[in-house]
Design a protein that fits this description.
Layout (H helix, E strand, L loop, with lengths): L1 E6 L3 H11 L5 E7 L2 H11 L3 E5 L7 H11 L4 E5 L3 H13 L3 E4 L3 H22 L37 E6 L3 H9 L8 E6 L3 H14 L3 E4 L10 E4 L5 E7 L2 E7 L11 H7 L7 E5 L8 H9 L3 E5 L9 H7 L5 E3 L1 H12 L3 H10 L7
Parallel strand pairs: 1-2, 1-3, 3-4, 4-5, 6-7, 6-12, 7-9, 8-9, 12-13, 13-14
Antiparallel strand pairs: 10-11
Length: 369
């Protein structure tokens, strides 16, 4: 039985969460707190397994409370966020500090229209959160500043890609915002072009891209329709559109599509990966930490078409759902811990086509984890 403590100043929201979780036989809401001071005492008394935490509360804001919590009593925390620019900034900061996930705080209208969906997603997030290794809950080393000074990072050396239009396609979900950041901050300004689908709400994707751009040597954009894809640039799918890559007259372009969800997601990693299948032999596809199975089947198709396919290993993943599913169907050519992936991407991009083919032939699937 998973013990959950709800921390939110709104009685209405607390009741919505309690009702949503009441249908799960494996979840027990052991308490609720209207502010962090009450929550602090209830944590000591009730010893919950997972916390849901509002980002904006009286007496002590959610960020200050989260910092204290990660220092004194690390545990899985799921943030309840408003879909505003301010809410996006606070939530992204919370993920940097150590929150494992977030869910959009529903309005009454949204709840009436999508009540079943909210219940399902919240239950799934809590169930996954409790499985995360305790070592992942630690106070961030970069709390004192949201903006990372670029020259303090070890930037990897890169002599440039030997192949025109060499492309890196990345998919991620739960834990992905931090995983993507840790990967991108080590890349030099002449890195191969990168396209990314991260499961994230519409309001959050622009702020996520802007925060990454402040921290990275590469230029990071929220992708726009028809945008030319260039080396040294990163393009992140908007939170409400599928991102595809189109190859026209020797040039790559971003294409955005407002079509149906795929694997319950929009944007979806499968959509991005499938869009690069026509030139798969010049692609490196990467699946990072994330809940679910989005990206696995399309990654397998890319592997069969000659792409190099990389998954984040289990030990370094917050949630080994997406990369784990790719591993289960042998969609990957290699797997690496997160801190090794950036160098592997650059090293491979330096190869000629003949050298690349030789590496692919030597790549062996790692042992099951």
């Amino acid at each position: 039985m998973i013990k959950v403590l709800i921390v939110d100043d709104s009685t209405v929201i607390r009741n919505i969460i309690k009702e949503a979780l009441s249908h799960s036989p494996n979840i027990n809401v052991v308490g609720e707190a209207e502010d962090p001071l009450v929550a602090r005492e209830l944590i000591k008394k009730l010893n919950p397994d997972v916390l849901t935490l509002d980002v904006e509360m009286p007496k002590m804001d959610g960020i200050t409370f989260l910092i204290n919590l990660m220092r004194l009593r690390p545990m899985p925390v799921i943030m309840l966020s408003t879909l505003t620019t301010k809410g996006a900034d606070i939530t992204l900061q919370a993920l940097e500090i150590g929150a494992v996930d977030f869910i959009a705080k529903p309005t009454v209208q949204e709840l009436l229209a999508t009540q079943a969906s909210f219940k399902e997603v919240l239950t799934e997030k809590i169930t996954q959160a409790v499985t995360i290794d305790q070592k992942n809950f630690k106070l961030s080393d970069t709390l004192t500043s949201n903006k990372v000074v670029k020259d303090k990072h070890h930037i990897l050396a890169f002599s440039g890609s030997k192949r025109a239009n060499h492309l890196i396609a990345i998919g991620a979900s739960t834990g992905g915002t931090e995983a993507i950041k840790k990967l991108l901050v080590t890349l030099p300004s002449n890195s191969p072009a990168i396209v990314i689908t991260q499961h994230i709400p519409k309001t959050f994707s622009l702020r996520f891209a802007q925060r990454l751009n402040d921290n990275c040597q590469v230029e990071v954009h929220e992708a726009s329709h028809g945008q030319k894809i260039k080396a040294g640039h990163v393009y992140i799918a908007p939170g409400d559109k599928h991102l595809e890559v189109v190859h026209k007259n020797g040039v790559l372009f971003c294409t955005l599509k407002d079509s149906e969800e795929v694997n319950r997601h929009k944007p979806a990693v499968d959509v991005l990966f499938d869009s690069v299948s026509d030139f798969a032999d010049n692609v490196q596809a990467v699946l990072l930490t994330g809940m679910g199975q989005d990206g696995a089947r399309a990654m397998l198709r890319l592997k069969e078409l000659g792409a190099r396919t990389i998954i984040q290993d289990k030990n370094s993943s917050l949630i080994w759902g997406m990369p784990g599913r790719a591993h289960a169907v042998s969609a990957h050519t290699v797997q690496y811990p997160l801190n090794k992936i950036a160098k592997q991407l650059l090293d491979y991009a330096c190869l000629t086509r003949l050298e690349m083919q030789q590496i692919l032939e030597k790549d062996c699937v790692g042992p099951a984890l």
